[in-house]
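ok new one. same drill as before - structure tokens go in, u give me an amino acid for every spot. 280 of them this time. try not to just spam alanines like last time pls lmao
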């Protein structure tokens, strides 16, 4: 079993012996001085060992770099190409010079350089979007003003920063904070709880972000621009991260589905004025 199959098929079910065990989110986020003093507040956000293991597994999975000498990685990329061409043909959509250009990668001939931020998981994300949300994203193909693949991979990378799904050896909390407003311990607790229940929820969250960012970007009349402008797209991505943070804050085990909460937050922010949003 290769590493892709291993990570994508493994399920972490909490054992009875683990249910009462708790570990501190300090394993994920450094504790503030205030929270060090207020232990009662801090303990409310402790997570189970199973939740933590689930988080670590996702972190490892989303951090696998693309290796062009790895046969399983190359096979995954070839599967993306074949799947994309099949979907375009079935939907009677034209393909530009090649499928990579049509999907919105920076390199027409080889998209590998676009996988720097999130590696192999970038391929899995693009495939997931094509298979599950083709109708919602097909209007972003052939468009220089919104490079679908580039934007999707950037959203994935910034969400990983937001949720601390990155290697702390390669990037510090200070560096993360320079790019996004990172999530709180309460939000991490909610995310880990949700992740343990559904190990595909992360992909679904990224997919909803991509659709929101695309719709917001077009709604704000950025389609008139001739090329993608990251100075405009990044504040929209950060707005979507705010939506995720609010949904996680409102989540509880008794609340409605997290995706309903997230869709409600996206709906509220669709008409917001980005000038009032913090640009990071």
């Amino acid at each position: 079993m290769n590493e892709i199959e291993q990570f994508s098929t493994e399920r972490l079910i909490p054992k009875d012996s683990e249910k009462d065990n708790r570990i501190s989110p300090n394993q994920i986020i450094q504790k503030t001085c205030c929270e060090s003093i207020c232990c009662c507040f801090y303990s409310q956000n402790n997570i189970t060992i199973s939740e933590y293991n689930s988080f670590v597994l996702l972190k490892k999975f989303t951090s696998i770099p693309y290796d062009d000498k790895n046969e399983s990685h190359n096979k995954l990329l070839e599967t993306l190409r074949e799947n994309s061409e099949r979907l375009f043909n079935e939907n009677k959509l034209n393909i530009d010079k090649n499928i990579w250009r049509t999907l919105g990668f920076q390199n027409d001939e080889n998209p590998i350089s676009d996988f720097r931020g999130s590696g192999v998981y970038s391929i899995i994300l693009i495939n997931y979007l094509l298979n599950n949300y083709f109708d919602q994203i097909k209007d972003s193909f052939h468009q220089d003003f919104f490079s679908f693949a580039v934007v999707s991979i950037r959203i994935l990378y910034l969400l990983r920063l937001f949720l601390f799904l990155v290697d702390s050896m390669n990037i510090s909390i200070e560096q993360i904070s320079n790019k996004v407003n990172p999530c709180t311990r309460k939000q991490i607790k909610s995310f880990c709880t949700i992740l343990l229940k559904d190990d595909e929820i992360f992909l679904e969250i990224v997919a909803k972000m991509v659709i929101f960012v695309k719709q917001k970007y077009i709604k704000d009349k950025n389609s008139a621009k001739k090329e993608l402008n990251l100075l405009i797209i990044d504040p929209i991505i950060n707005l979507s991260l705010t939506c995720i943070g609010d949904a996680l804050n409102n989540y509880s085990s008794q609340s409605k589905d997290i995706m309903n909460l997230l869709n409600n937050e996206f709906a509220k922010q669709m008409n917001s004025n980005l000038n009032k949003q913090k640009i990071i």
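The CA atoms of residues 176 and 184 lie 13 Å apart. and btw The mean pLDDT is 79.
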